[in-house]
Amino acid sequence: MISQTEITGLILAGGRAQRMGGIDKGLIPFHHRPLIESVIHRLRPQVGSILINANRNLEQYSTYGFPVISDDDLSFSGPLAGFAAGLKACPTEYVVTAPCDSPLLPTNLVELLVTKMTEGSFDLVYASSKDPAGKTWAQPVFCLMRVSLSKSLEEFISLGDLKIDRWFKELNSSTVVFDSESAFANINTPEELLTLEKASS
């Protein structure tokens, strides 16, 4: 079994947040505290250490006491760039990722991803959720992966492809379907922020 100390949590806060008017999403107030604090609160007990991937406001993010790493290419090229930076900086054999704008992420996220990875000796396991109609949706920015995938990801990015699902298809990967769709709710617009605050108050 993979122990908690072997896993580093990588919080992805490197996006442009264009639909939020370009505001740094991790620092937007959610229930009177920055969004990233809710993510740290839920992820920290599940992992051995934390890394924060950010491309601006680095000083502000560093006040949380965790290493802050930026993408190699500061063109805000999406989650895979954050993955790549995290895999390079990760001090452990495994890394689990979560975005900074999903404050209700499952408290058993790592436990279930680890169980699936161990069962099938997978290189990467990502979360999926089920909506009320029973349809399954991939939640690829919530994933557990072996740090040994760093080279594979660098090669994939170097070909100019930034689609997460395409990279996953090249790997020995699997998914875990979580019952709670709301656990993966993320905030892309001011309206979604208000809706999620009301739903979680």
Structural key phrases:
201 residues; alpha/beta; Spore Coat Polysaccharide Biosynthesis Protein SpsA, Chain A; 7-stranded mixed sheet; two-stranded antiparallel ribbon; 24% strand; globular; nucleotidyltransferase; transferase; GTP-binding
Describe the fold and architecture.
Transfers a GMP moiety from GTP to Mo-molybdopterin (Mo-MPT) cofactor (Moco or molybdenum cofactor) to form Mo-molybdopterin guanine dinucleotide (Mo-MGD) cofactor. Belongs to the MobA family. GTP binds at residues 12-14, 25, 53, 71, 101. Residues 9-171 form the MobA-like NTP transferase domain. The chain is of the alpha/beta class. It has one domain (4-199): Spore Coat Polysaccharide Biosynthesis Protein SpsA, Chain A, CATH 3.90.550.10. The protein has seven helices and nine strands. Helix 3 (79-89) packs antiparallel against helix 5 (150-158).
Write the layout of secondary structure elements.
Layout (H helix, E strand, L loop, with lengths): L6 E7 L15 E2 L2 E2 H9 L5 E6 L3 H5 L5 E2 L9 H11 L4 E6 L9 H12 L3 E7 L5 E11 L3 H9 L5 H6 L3 E6 L11 H10 L2
Parallel strand pairs: 1-4, 1-6, 4-5, 7-9
Antiparallel strand pairs: 2-3, 6-8, 7-8
